[in-house]
Amino acid sequence: PEMFYVKSVIGDQPWLRKDSVLVSAGVAWRNPGEGFTLPPPEAETLFVDSGGFQAAVHFRDEYPYTPTELFEWADSIDADYVAGMDWACETATELAKDYDGVSPSDIAPLEERIDRTIQDQRRQLKAYEQGEWDFELVPVVQGYTIAQYRQCARRLRVHNLARKYMGIGTVCKRDSPTKILEVLDACEDELPITEFHLFGATKRIW
Q: What's the confidence (pLDDT) of residue 2?
């Protein structure tokens, strides 16, 4: 499996490996300035995360950028992959605990975030099909319980969002390979020909 190294701040990171890098559109948008301001890193393979965590915690009701704006920025930095516009599905308490000024009540209910994940990726797919882009769109399965992941994967398939390469979100809060593999098994049951990128599955976990 391929491990992507995350670039999340403006400035040089001399320790960053240049082979496979993931950069968050949500972080790029929130850096100083207007629009996407994060300088593109040097990378042989560049993966743009659409900003599902920032959508859930900081952007609240909607993404501040449209799918087309995201795609144009991704093309401008020569991205190879762009993730589906999802919403992080940790509990509201987990999402809010490390951020001043954000309380659990500020964050949409979990089931609503799963619904938004489906809706926003359907909208994103339309924009992708209407343009000519040099990157691959990578839809994202979201959930918190195994049943929620399974249902989300099934809904993505029903809405023609199943692809040979897809992402699985909200993996970072699972503290053991066994729990991660349970999520992976559920998604593979619904999408058996798909290979998955696991967002947040760090070297430390493995």
A: 54
